[in-house]
């Protein structure tokens, strides 16, 4: 039986991905700072863990190593989103985004790498906002751009180990993080929120099972905007302004 480790497993994309892999007879190791969701409690090997805390992640690593559990796929889904004007968001919230969205990814890749089998995959959760910084999502965009760059670097570095590294790039997803946000960015209203966590999970499964590309785009909007940005690089700033300002 193959094993996937998923961070942010208790809700949204992480939860949907866990369900899909379980349906396909994978063993799921789930990490989240929140308790395990009741519908997955007896189906996954769950660790309540803050991915920002290196010590907590190391405890999970040691527990898996004791049980001789190796990993066929690592999916870093844990993340937070804070929307609003840069100066109106508390500095602590900005730092939390950097810690969870980027430091958490680095922690998990670095610590769990010894458990990754040859032929395994690392899938990171990036965002359409990584292509060009998005107003009202300034720090979030920066963290996802960092994840995208990390993915590109490790895709080359880890090739010698037989480990495939890629990311998933999507616009706004119907998750509590977006739907229940205190502030809604103008770009959310312009683009709409149409992508489901299940659609993203399908892309993650494809990336792990058959993926070869470095970047996997989810949905027509993400694919179209990426195409335009590549074909007309000078339009990236124009499109960001168009989507972000009333």
TrEMBL record:
Recorded family membership: Belongs to the short-chain dehydrogenases/reductases (SDR) family.
Keywords of the record: NADP, Oxidoreductase
Organism the protein comes from: Thermotomaculum hydrothermale
Name of a matching Pfam family: adh_short
Segments passing through the bilayer: none
PANTHER family from the UniProt entry: DEHYDROGENASE_REDUCTASE SDR FAMILY PROTEIN 7-LIKE, RETINOL DEHYDROGENASE-RELATED
Record bears the keyword DNA damage: no
Protein name, as recorded: Short chain dehydrogenase
MF-aspect GO terms: oxidoreductase activity
Source taxon at top rank: Bacteria
Gene3D superfamilies in the record: NAD(P)-binding Rossmann-like Domain
Keyword NADP: yes
SUPFAM superfamilies: NAD(P)-binding Rossmann-fold domains
């Amino acid at each position: 039986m193959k094993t996937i480790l998923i961070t942010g497993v208790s809700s949204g994309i992480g939860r949907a991905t866990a369900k899909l892999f379980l349906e396909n007879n994978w063993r799921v190791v789930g990490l989240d700072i929140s308790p395990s969701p009741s519908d997955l409690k007896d189906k996954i090997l769950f660790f309540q863990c803050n991915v920002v805390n290196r010590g907590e992640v190391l405890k999970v690593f040691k527990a898996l190593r004791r049980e001789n559990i190796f990993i066929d796929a690592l999916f870093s889904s844990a993340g937070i989103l804070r929307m609003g004007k840069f100066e109106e968001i508390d500095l602590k919230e900005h730092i939390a985004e950097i810690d969870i969205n980027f430091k958490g990814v680095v922690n998990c890749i670095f610590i769990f790498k010894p458990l990754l089998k040859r032929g395994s995959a690392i899938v990171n959760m990036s965002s359409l906002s990584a292509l060009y910084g998005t107003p009202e999502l300034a720090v979030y965009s920066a963290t996802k751009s960092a994840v995208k760059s990390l993915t590109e670097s490790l895709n080359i570095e880890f090739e010698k180990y037989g480990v495939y590294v890629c990311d998933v790039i999507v616009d706004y997803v119907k998750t509590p993080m977006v739907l229940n946000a205190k502030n809604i960015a103008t770009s959310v209203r312009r683009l709409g929120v149409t992508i489901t966590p299940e659609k993203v999970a399908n892309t993650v499964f494809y990336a792990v099972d058959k993926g070869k590309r470095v970047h996997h785009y989810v949905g027509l909007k993400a694919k179209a905007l990426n195409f335009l940005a590549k074909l007309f690089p000078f339009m990236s700033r124009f499109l960001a302004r168009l989507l972000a300002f009333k």
